[in-house]
Amino acid sequence: MKYKVFIGIFIVELLLLIGILLFSYISINTRIDEMKYLRQLCQGLTATDLAIWTEARYTRHPSQTDIFSAFQDCPSCLEHFPAGSVLSPPPHFRRPLEAVK
Amino acid sequence: MRRHLMILEFALSCLCRRKYKNLALLFAFSLLVFILSSILLLTYALKKEAIEILQGAPEITVQRTVAGRHELIPVEYINKIKTIPGVGKVEPRYWGYYYDPFIGANYTLLGANRDMLRKIEILEGKSFFSEQKGVCIVGKGVAKAYFAEVGDRITIIGADGISYTFKIAGIFKTASDILTNDLIILSNDDIKRLFQIPTGFATDIVVEVYNPEEIETVAEKIKKLFPSTRPITREEILRTYESLFDWRSGMILTMFIAAVVAFVILAWDKATGLSAEERREIGILKAIGWESSDIMELKFWEGFVLSSLSFFTGLIGGYMHVFFFGAPLLSTALKGWSVVFPTLKLTPYVSAYQILVLLFLTVVPYMASTIVPSWKAAMTEPDQVMRG
C-alpha cells in the first residue's frame, strides 16, 4: 500500500521538524548565559555594532553612519563594496531630512 | 476514512505513473523552499542575535561632526554633559580603523579603559592593565590573519609612518567572534600614539543614562548644548539592526524575489491548464461514476503529497544549512570583500511567522494551482472533457 509509505515518510519528516524546533528551543535556553556574557562584553567594550562586514566603515559600523554630507557612504548609497548591497540602509536614511534630529 | 485513504492511494498511483516528472518537481520545489528558508532563517537569526547582544551598547554615543564628516570630539565636552540630570558615567572612546597593507584586511582598533579590561573574560591568554603599553588583545579573525598565537607580536604602522610592535596578551575565543572578530584592543595611550590623536580630543564620547526613559531627553539636551554633535541612542542602534537584517530589503530581497519568481513560473505553468492526459483521466473518472468532489479530493491529495514533502525537506535542509553548517552557500554572497569574516555560529531562532510566510509563499499557491484547473475540468461533462 503506497499510502502507508507516504504516511510513514510524512510522519518521519514531521517528527524531524518537531525535533529541530525542540533543538532550537533547547539551544536558545542553553545559550542564555553565553548571550548574557556577550551582552556584558558589548557593554564592557562599549561596542555599537557587530563585527561582521569589515570592508568599509559604513558596513563595519552601520549604526554610526551619518546623513550630513552629500554622497555620504552608507549601505546602498552610491555603492562601492558588495556587502553594502546585502545590507539595507539604516532607518534614519529613509526618513525625510527635516524629521531627523 | 477508508474512502479517503483509497483516494490517497489512487493519487499516489497517479503520481507514480508520471514518476520522473514528479520527482523533478519534488526536487525543484524542495530546492526553492530550501533557498527561501535559508534566507529567512539566516536573516532572522542575525537580527535576533544583534538585538540580544546590542542591548549592552552604550545608552548614548556622542559624535562630533564638522562639514558633514565625523570628527574628533573635545574631551572637555564631558564636564558639561556630566551636569545633565540623570547622566551617569561619561567617558571618551579612542578607536579607529587600520588597513593592513600586508594582509589586505581592515581591523578595528579600540582603546581600553580599566572597566573594559575587567569585563573581558572569554580569552585565551589574559587581559592586561590599562596603563600597560606595547600589549594587545586581538579577535580570532585577526589572530588567524596573522597566524598568531598568545605571546606572538603584531606590527602596526602608525600615522607617523613608524612601525609599532605589540605583544598579544590574549585572543578572544570563537564564541565572541560576532562582536570581536576584527578587534585589536590596545591601551588608550597606544591608540593615541598610533593615530596621532591630539591631546584633549577623543574619537567619540559614551554617555551612561540611569533611567532608560530619559535617554531621548538627555540626547536632545546634548544636541542643544553642542549643536555640532550627533548623539546616537541605543534605541537607534537597535532600530538600525532591525532594518539591516530585514528579509524584505537589500540583496536578500533580490535573492528572495528570484526564488519566488522561479516558483511563480512553476505554479503558473500548472495553473494555466491540465495536460491532455490529465483531462482525459478526469473525464474517465467522471464517466465511471466519480463525483466532482472525489476528483477535487484526488487533486488535493496529489498537491498535498508533493507540496508537504517538498516543504518539510526544504525547511529541514534550510535549517541544517544555516544552523549546523553556518550557511556556506549564502555566506559567499554575504561575505563580500571582507577579508576578516566571522564564522556564523548563530543561535537557532525560529518563529512561527517565518514558517507561515514560507507556507503561504509556497504550499498555498501550489495547492491552489493544482486544484483550480482540476475543479474547472471536474465541472465539465465527461464527454466534453475527454474530447478536450
Structure in words:
The complex is a heterodimer of chains A (101) and B (388). By secondary structure, chain A is mostly helical. Chain A folds into two domains: 2-45; 57-99, no CATH class. Chain A is 50% helix and 0% strand. Chain A is elongated, with a radius of gyration of 22 Å. Chain A starts with a helix and ends in a 15-residue tail after the last helix. With 388 residues, chain B is an alpha+beta fold. Chain B folds into two domains: 2-53 and 245-387, no CATH class; 60-233, no CATH class. Chain B has 16 helices and 14 strands. Chain B has helices spanning 2-17, 19-53, 77-82, 114-119, 140-146, 177-180, 188-195, 215-225, 234-244, 250-271, 276-287, 292-324, 328-335, 352-361, 363-379, 382-387, and strands spanning 60-66, 69-71, 73-74, 87-93, 95-100, 105-112, 123-125, 135-138, 153-157, 163-172, 183-187, 201-202, 204-209, 229-233. In chain B, strands 5, 6, 7, 8, 9, 10 and 11 form a seven-stranded mixed β-sheet that branches. In chain B, strands 1, 2, 4, 13 and 14 form a five-stranded antiparallel β-sheet that branches. In chain B, helix 2 (19-53) runs antiparallel to helix 9. The longest helix of chain B is centred in the N-terminal third of the chain and has 35 residues, at 19-53. The two termini of chain B are 33 Å apart. The model of chain B has no long low-confidence stretch (mean pLDDT 86). The interface between A and B is large, with 66 and 94 residues.
Short description:
The complex is a heterodimer of chains A (101) and B (388). Chain A has helices at 2-30, 32-45, 57-60, 83-86.
